[in-house]
Design goal:
5 strands, five-stranded parallel sheet, 39% helix, Rossmann fold, single chain, alpha/beta, 6 helices, 152 residues
Length: 152
């Protein structure tokens, strides 16, 4: 056989096809997000911000998590919903909720807070949040909350 004979060259084996989602031992498929940011999250905790964006991607919701109130306000102009961590510094969460509520009285705004800080729930409601819930509930139901908000 000559060196130009293709039959003498090793070929890379094709990787086995990935198992279909839902088969035993497989993770569910990640749904690709669609459109521009559907949900804007204003959070001060970078780890929680990552949890929100990773969960959003997993359930097929396009989301962005921002730590700047000004950036969140700009992004909220195009989003269908807003998520607000009431534990951001100062009263920026309250200000953001009020500003977004003035832009659009019907836009869904979900605020979350530590279960021991019930005064933050009252502040969120007073500022105009559609819902206020403890962080534990928000975290536990995050995927469903993001899907519901994106569908509004």
């Amino acid at each position: 056989m000559s060196e130009s004979d293709d039959t003498t060259r090793p070929t890379a084996a094709k990787p086995p096809a990935a198992p279909a989602s839902g088969e035993p031992g497989t993770a569910p498929a990640i749904v690709e997000p669609r459109g521009s940011h559907e949900v804007v999250a204003y959070v001060s905790d970078l780890i929680f911000a990552t949890k929100i964006t990773a969960t959003a991607r997993f359930v097929g919701v396009r989301a962005v998590a921002l730590t700047s109130c000004d950036a969140a306000l700009r992004a909220a102009g195009e989003a269908v919903a807003l998520v607000v961590d009431m534990h951001t510094p100062g009263e920026t969460a309250d200000e953001l909720i009020r500003s977004v509520r003035q832009m659009d009285a019907s836009r869904p705004i979900v605020a979350f807070y530590s279960h021991v800080c019930t005064e933050l729930a009252e502040r969120a409601s007073a500022a105009g949040a559609s819902e206020a819930m403890p962080r534990s509930k928000f975290s536990r139901e995050l995927g469903a909350i993001l899907q519901r908000l994106a569908a509004m």
